[in-house]
Structure formats: C-alpha cells, structure tokens
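For this section, I looked closely at a protein sequence along with its fold in token form, which I now present.
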Amino acid sequence: MDFDFIAIDFEIANYNLNSACAIGIAAVKNLEIVESKYFLICPPSRKFDRRCVAVHGITYEDVKSSPKFPEVWAQIRTCFEENYVIAHNAKFDMSVLKNCLIEYGLDIPDFKYFCSIKISSKACKNVGKSLKERTKCFGIELDNHHNALCDAKACAQLVIETVKRCGKKSFESFIKTYSSIKPEEFKDLEHQVTFIERNRYKHFERISVSEIAAAAETFNKTHPLFGKNIVFTGELRTMDRRTAMQKAVNVGAVLKTGVSKNTDFLVAGVQDKSIVGDDGLSSKLKTAYKLIDEGYDIKIINEDEFLRLLEG
C-alpha cells in the first residue's frame, strides 16, 4: 500500500546490531496512522545483554519461539517498497535493519529514509533530541517507552505534529518546503555493526572460545577451514565477532584466543587507532608478523577473504 511514510523502531538483544528482538511499524496516510504491526524476533544468538533487557524487558524466553528475521521480513518487506521510512535517531534503526539483512544474506532494498530528530527540529527549539523529550514537548503520549510499537507510533505522531505545526497539509509538501531535510538512501548507508558510538573507546565484548560450539556434528573435511586454528582481531563490517566465530566453528575451524606458532589464519578486521595506536596494528597482528618473519606459515586475511573461505 502507498503511505505518506512508515515509522519504524527496533529493539536489540545485545550490543550487536544484528540482534533485533522486536520491531514496531506505524504506517501513516493523510497524516493519520492507518496501520500498525508488531513482531517479536528470535535473534541469531541466544545472548541477551542485561543492559538491553533492562531497557525493553524482552528476554530470550520471550522470543525463543518467535520467527527469525527472514520470516518477519517476508511479511513486512512490501511496507518498505515505494514508501519513505522514518525512525528516531535513524542511523541506529537503519543499521539494525541492514545488519539483519546481511546476517541472513537477504537482498538490500532500495528506499529512502529520514530521521525524525531532524524533522521535528523544524517545530521545536532548545529541546533535547531523545524521543521522550521530543514527544513531551509536543504533548504526545509515550506510555510504554522502548516497546517497539509504542515508539514507532510516537515517532509517527511526532512527524505528523511537526507537519501540522509548520502549516503543511501533507508530508510531501513539508519536505518540499524544507529542502534542507533530504532523504538518505538506505542502500548507501555505512551501517554501524555495534551499538557503541565510533568516537568513543571501544570495549569489545569478551567472548570465551569455550562458549562457541559447532551447530553440526559432522564436517566436510575438505573445507579449507576444517581443522585450522583461527584467530580474530578488530571489528568486522558485516557481522559481529561472535557470529563470525560461530560460522568458523560450524565448518570445523578451531578457535584460538591468541596468535601462536600453530595459528593458521588471523582474520584482521578494522582496527581502532584509539586502542592500537597510530600504526593500526593490534598486539595479535604484531605477533603474527613477528612469527611470519621467523618462518611460520600464518596467513593474515581480511574479512572478504574470510567470507570466501567460509563459502569453501
């Protein structure tokens, strides 16, 4: 159906942005919410960070019987076709969507999106940017904050009220008037992989290799990663560290926490210079290069090479 726009909100299970555990959608036509959808989602990992649970109250027990993201996407995909999409602090929600699509190898849709912070700033001054602060300023009820559907509806109402306060009769006329508010292309989004802001010190989730067990009992012994000792360093673009480790053990690789003479592959992601220094080399990379100079056969590969090896 053709809407003025749809407003969306995601909740996540942990600080990896492929871990969507709920989505709310509010569809707006003629400046009224005419349709809404809410889904609980079973994320790819059972890990629910206690800090995330404290925010939205969703636990693994709540979603373990819920559909995985591909099943939910099959039901909501058409909402994103030929409609504008709006979210409050859109970079977060769009990153969650893109990470989920990448996680399951789904096609990246082509749509335009806006951030309701930029939109609502046209009708309010000197007000905080949070959804709670903005809705309070506009007199919009936010009864169950961090319920994905309630937040999506509140975001939609925030945009509707902004359009009305600016004296416009439609969302289309509003964005034509305020040409400084330009839509972003979802396919061009440089998505975040984790919830941690990039300009802050990164505290990577510490993952014990003993936590990662293979999903299969038998393996293809001709797979290029079977029986190989593999180590990860840095941040990957397309998946979180835990997911990458899981994919590796699922084809028979052996996870190691540190680089040694027995390491076969070191997967090198993006390094944060605020952590590793200006040379961009983590301690694992430095150790690997030292051992390579000593004649040990350690292959340092990037994320794309790792993904190609996974494909066999």
